């Protein structure tokens, strides 16, 4: 009844310097390629039983690069529940007011806009194709055509960013008042242009203490203006938590379709083929395009439940008697976890060192 589907669209206008998501720039993939991809995607959807979805998430890459009728064609393949959350990731500069209007008409009811920063200089360093003005226009157009559930993505701790610059971004967030904000600290990923520039000494990561200070500032400021800090990097107004992503963190099953997409279905975690040719070949022979398949053991399932569950800051995890409790009690004694409503949750200290907490649980 409450199933989820993630649909991966691996195309972008231009690759951003920091990004290692599976996506190809339009110079590499033209419009005909995109049309063919949509056809194969639809065939892949047909390889799964017709489930009823109450969350649909178009992610990427840049799903907003597709034509509206291509997105509509995909939606028509799905059995979607009445109050479903249907999210589309939007890159400003790939949509105008008319396209936003059409997206609303075909049933998209939540937008996740990849703004990243409202500072033109920073946007340039990040390699984004939009500037502040375009970001603001996209947001305002989306509102004016009637989107009532808008999320924005931001990145902080970008090279040379100052507290003052971050504060200016947060001032604009306050003014825009989106229903949902995902804010990530910049991750320096292997194989990206940023890593290359780091190796050459042309870009530097921000100091760790400054990054921690920025994260604290973000939490304090967004809470003050009424946002619920419900996941490590996610904030929302009341009742606007991302329903789709929350299912991941609740360790629920979901189908993932598209190049390189992952899914968790019938006790199996899988990842699709990451090369177009391999992906197409399997679909052409009526086979799910799986590249990696892992049967989730009871132990793995529990581990996933703990690590994902702790990310949900107000939910946390149950106190149980099992092999992980010794580590959990130890983290509690050292101040990384607290007990609230009979559940373990991350403390502020745990939040600052969440990756270390998760590694400790997994070891
Ligand atoms: C899958 S991306 C797709 C969104 C969309 N393509 C865009 O960029 O506008 C989702 C989000 O992940 C974040 N992200 C991607 N790479 C990152 C990195 N290396 N460090 C921190 N955040 C990153 C960005 O905020 C981005 O909007
Ligand atoms: S951050 Fe978004 S727009 Fe930039 S390359 Fe990655 S997926 Fe594409």
Overview of the structural elements:
This protein folds into two domains: 3-249, Aldolase class I (TIM Barrel); 298-362, no CATH class. Helix 6 runs parallel beside helix 8 (208-224) and helix 11 packs antiparallel against helix 14 (354-362). A nine-stranded mixed β-sheet has the order 9-10-8-7-6-5-4-1-11, with helices on both faces. The chain has a three-stranded antiparallel β-sheet with strand order 12-13-14, with no helix packed on it. The chain has a three-stranded antiparallel β-sheet with strand order 15-17-16. Strand 7, helix 6 and strand 8 form a beta-alpha-beta unit. Helices cover 40% and strands 24% of the residues. It has helices at residues 31-46, 68-76, 97-105, 120-126, 132-144, 163-176, 193-199, 208-224, 243-249, 276-284, 298-311, 325-333, 348-352, 354-362; strands at 3-9, 11-12, 24-25, 52-60, 79-90, 110-116, 150-156, 180-185, 228-231, 234-236, 255-257, 262-265, 268-272, 290-295, 317-318, 337-340, 343-346. The protein is globular and about 55 Å long. It has 14 helices and 17 strands. With 363 residues, it is α/β, with parallel strands linked by helices. The structure holds S-adenosylmethionine and iron/sulfur cluster. Residues 18-19, 21, 59-62, 89, 91, 114, 116, 153, 155, 184, 186-187, 189 line the site of S-adenosylmethionine.
């Amino acid at each position: 009844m409450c199933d989820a589907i993630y649909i991966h669209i691996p195309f972008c206008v231009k690759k951003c310097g920091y990004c290692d998501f599976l996506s190809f720039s339009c110079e590499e993939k033209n419009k005909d390629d995109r049309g063919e991809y949509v056809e194969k995607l639809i065939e892949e959807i047909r390889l799964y039983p017709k489930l009823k979805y109450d969350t649909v998430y178009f992610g990427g890459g840049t799903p907003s690069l597709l034509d509206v009728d291509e997105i509509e064609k995909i939606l028509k393949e799905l059995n979607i529940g009445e109050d479903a959350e249907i999210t589309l990731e939007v890159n400003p500069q790939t949509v105008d007011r008319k396209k936003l209007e059409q997206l609303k008409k075909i049933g998209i009811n939540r937008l996740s806009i990849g703004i990243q920063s409202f500072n033109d200089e920073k946007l340039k360093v990040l390699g984004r194709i939009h500037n502040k003005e375009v970001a603001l226009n996209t947001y305002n157009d989306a509102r004016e055509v009637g989107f009532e559930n808008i999320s924005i993505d931001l990145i902080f701790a970008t090279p040379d960013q100052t507290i003052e610059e971050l504060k200016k971004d947060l001032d604009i967030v306050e003014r825009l008042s989106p229903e949902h904000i995902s804010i990530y600290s910049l991750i320096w990923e292997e194989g990206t242009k940023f890593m290359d520039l780091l190796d050459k000494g042309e870009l530097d990561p921000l100091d760790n203490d400054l990054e921690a200070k920025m994260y604290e500032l973000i939490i304090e400021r967004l809470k003050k203006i009424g946002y619920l800090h419900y996941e490590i990097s996610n904030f929302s107004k009341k009742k606007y938590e991302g329903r789709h992503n929350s299912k991941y963190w609740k360790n629920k099953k979901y189908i993932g379709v598209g190049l390189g997409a992952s899914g968790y279905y019938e006790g199996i975690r899988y990842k699709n083929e990451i090369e177009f040719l391999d992906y197409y070949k399997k679909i052409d022979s009526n086979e799910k395009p799986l590249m990696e398949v892992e049967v989730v053991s009871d132990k793995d399932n529990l581990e996933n439940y703990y690590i994902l569950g702790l990310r949900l800051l107000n939910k946390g995890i149950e106190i149980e008697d099992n092999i992980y409790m010794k580590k959990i009690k130890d983290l509690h004694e050292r101040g990384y976890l607290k007990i609230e409503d009979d559940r373990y949750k991350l403390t502020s200290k745990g939040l600052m060192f969440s990756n270390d907490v998760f590694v400790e649980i997994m070891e």
